[in-house]
C-alpha cells in the first residue's frame, strides 16, 4: 500500500494541476525503508510536503504498474535514494527510467541522494552497480541499456551524500 501525506495545508503550493504530489520517493526498500526513507518521509509530512512513498513489495522480476507510473508522473519532484542494492531491483531501475523520462518531458525536478554509496560507483556502474547491471543484461539487454543511461543521467545531477553531512 502506498503512503502519502495529506495533513495540514502544504508549505509548498502545487504549481499546477499537473502535480498530485510534491515529492515521489524512489528507493530500495531493503536498504532504506525502515531508516532513512521513513525519517525523510516523516520530515516532509511534518513540513506539509505531500509525498508519495510506495510501501508495497513487488515480486522479483515484475514491472512497475500503471498506478506507480501515474504517481511518478504526478509528482513535481522525484527524490532518488541510491543505495548499495538499488540497482539489484529491476523495479527501482524501471522507476528510474520513468522518472528521467518525466524530467525530460514534464519538467520534473530530480534530486538524487547517495545513501551509503559513492556517486562515482553509480555513474561509472562499478562494484555492486556494475555487477547488478551485468546480471540484468543477460536477461534483457535492451532494458539494461536504458537502465544504464538513466543511472548515468541521474548520477550526473548534483545530489546529496548524507554521510558527508554532520550527523548524516
From TrEMBL:
Keywords carried by this UniProt record: NAD
Any Pfam family the entry gives: TIR
PROSITE patterns with a match to the protein in the record: TIR (PS50104)
Domain TIR: 19-168
GO cellular component, one term: nucleus
Domain of life: Eukaryota
Any one of the GO BP annotations: signal transduction
The protein's name in its UniProt record: TIR domain-containing protein
